[in-house]
What does this fold into?
Amino acid sequence: MVSPVGAFAAPVITDAAGLGVLVAALGVDGRRVIGPVCRDGAVVYEPVTKLSDLPLGVIDEQDAGVYRLKKTGDSRYFAHAVGPQSWKRYLFPPRQSLWSARRRGKGFEIVKDTPAPAPEYVFLGVRACELAAINIHDRVFDNGDFADPGYLARRGRALIVAVNCTRAGGSCFCASMNCGPRAEQGYDLALTEIVGDGGLRILIETGSERGAAIMAGFEAPLADKSDLAAARDAVRIAEEGMGRKMSQGARKALGKSLDDPRWDEIAMRCLSCANCTLVCPTCFCTSTKDLTSLDGKTAERQRVWDSCFTLDFSYIHGGSIRRGTAARYRQWITHKLVHWHEQFGMSGCTGCGRCITWCPVGIDITQEARVITESFVKGG
Amino acid sequence: MAAGKKPRLAVWKFSSCDGCQLSLLDCEDELLAVAEAVEIGFFLEATRAQVAGPYDISLVEGSISTPRDIKRIQKVRRQSRVLITIGACATSGGIQALRNLSDVDAFVNMVYAHPEFISTLATSTPISDHVKVDFELRGCPIDKYQLLEVLNAALNGRKPDIPAHSQCIECKLSGTVCVMVAQGIPCLGPVTQAGCGNICPGCERGCYGCFGPKEAPNPAALSGRLLELGMDLRQTRHFYRSFNTNAGAFRDESARLESIDG
Ligand code: SF4
Ligand code: SF4
It folds into this structure.
């Protein structure tokens, strides 16, 4: 039985069977557990009800424009890195109805319906870079000037079970963004998988009262010093195996390189397809659509994910202001790495590497930032 | 739309397979509402009854491929307040525009016992090459929800919600995993306009480009990737030459690839 230390519980150690018990315990009381599952050649975030839903022994080989799942004999359930989706799909869904209206005489009236209560999600397998991304969205969607009630309701109810990465993906560079691979805060529970002679062991750390409440009914021995050291070592392997890194000084260099010839060179390769922005866990741009019923009696306003890579997105009176792809790519990367700091007091990039892997032509944010930073340093 | 008289709708066919018109009849659940909202003036696939023009909305299916088509489309335009073209044939010339790359007389002589009875043009071209078009609805065939949206917008005097962005955006919105990145399957999605509802990527196949080029596409960059994925120059060129072979960006890219191939 766990003895509480301070406000929360002390770390415990369990095995695969214990993880199964935990997965079942997470899904009670009307909570909906969303976690990693294999579908269509990728690890995606979908409902999970039992241990066997998780991708046991599955790793993802990732590089610019390439993602391949491989089944291995690995005993870990979380040996994969991040996939094409992020938790933004649940906290900030692709399509949201904002309000609807009914025609009344020559005008209209807003339909006041009570919104359904936000689902109580449990996010299982949230990586350090994803905690950082959620933290960024917390800022974006509640920043003093503007608060998004839908986001805040879903976020407030969500329970976060983090996983410390013990294997880095080929596109990961969270270490150089100070966003991982270890989850430091912002979780209710955090798991670390340790592979040893005796098979898989899992360290469970508790980071909140809600996490402690879940652990209250969970039978497991306390972790000892050697368990904690083994967990640290396992995460260090991920840190050392990270294939990419962001150039130091990129923020300053990019902000001062708006005329760099590299932008035009990127535009030759870039498809302006918008994949990079849609897979990014922090990109939050949307467009607003007004729809009507055929008879014109009712109307609805929707908010739908959009991207700075479309022509329509920057359409204002007279036309689009970012017609060329060079201007659109530059807008995206400088917003992420430069202007986000001014706007929200933090970087817009966590180093998750999704935009690198899921770009169909493999355009790599770390490489583009490096090339421009180097030419800036050289006096460009 | 002002209360009182219902807007009069006409549906016209040029060189085409009829599939796009069928999409209108395929709107089973919404068909009654459409019939409530408009007066069907001319729609031979649905009814023999004909009401003379002018028409408030004309839907035009098919490409211009005969001398007779050229005359007839002028007449349709004159009778139509709003003219909306529907489908790959009407918006780009259709798959029959493959003839634009070949010798039509040679085909005619080869295929028909009496070629002298065949009256055809050397090219198949979109309606917009011949008359002013108010809105183009893409697809082979068109998507019924997009068709309803265009009709709905026209009836309610608002802008239709028909994005010109990439198919990739549709895939990402619906959670479809990218077949090119995750499986190395060649896909035209990054240069193709969204709208079909993810039919092919949703079944783990690459996009065939039925909805034609997206806004400001970069097919040369995509071709480079298709070649890396193992397509040869000929296959890559043919990838662009299907339902929208004559759509500007696809036509130019296939011609470029042909010139490299020699
Ligand atoms: S950088 Fe890659 S993913 Fe992003 S718009 Fe360009 S081609 Fe698409
Ligand atoms: S910019 Fe790229 S690496 Fe950074 S958070 Fe977004 S998807 Fe991840």
Summary: Chain B touches chain A through 48 residues (CB under 8 Å). Chain B has two domains: 8-155, 167-261. The radius of gyration of chain B is 20 Å. The CA atoms of residues 95 and 242 of chain B lie 6 Å apart.
